[in-house]
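Before relying on records like the one below, remember that each one covers exactly one chain. Contacts with other chains, cofactors or solvent are not represented anywhere in the record.
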Amino acid sequence: MKLQTNLIMLALAVITLPFLSCDDDNVSDTTTKDIQTFIETKYPGAQVVKIEREDNKIIEADIIHDNLNKEVAFDLSSKWLYTSWDVRISELPQAVSAILNDPDYAGYHIDDADFVETPNGNYYLLELEKGNSESKVKVDETGKVLS
């Protein structure tokens, strides 16, 4: 199902790419070019779906790279903050999913998982649920809880 969604998004990106424009009220042409240059360098072959300012705090670029929908975030001066994308729970490294064995997370299950790349290192952002309780936890690739 996720592959199907990715293929549809890729097809839409290819069809709309010639018509793609950024909202000039939100993101300047210079900023857009800087962001596109960064994306071309860091994610070769990526298709930019859209670039827009969010909450006047960050600029987000939605891209398709390696058949994955990714969100690339920048500050208002075009400095890369992070890139994130969904990860199937079944594809999490054993060390990451083993967090459920920790007594602090007894009874929780992983509801959602994202992989996050940052200039300072990578981590998994896990959304844990237990009944009506929800918690977000950052876990590095070795299973160490970061927050």
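The chain has three helices and seven strands.
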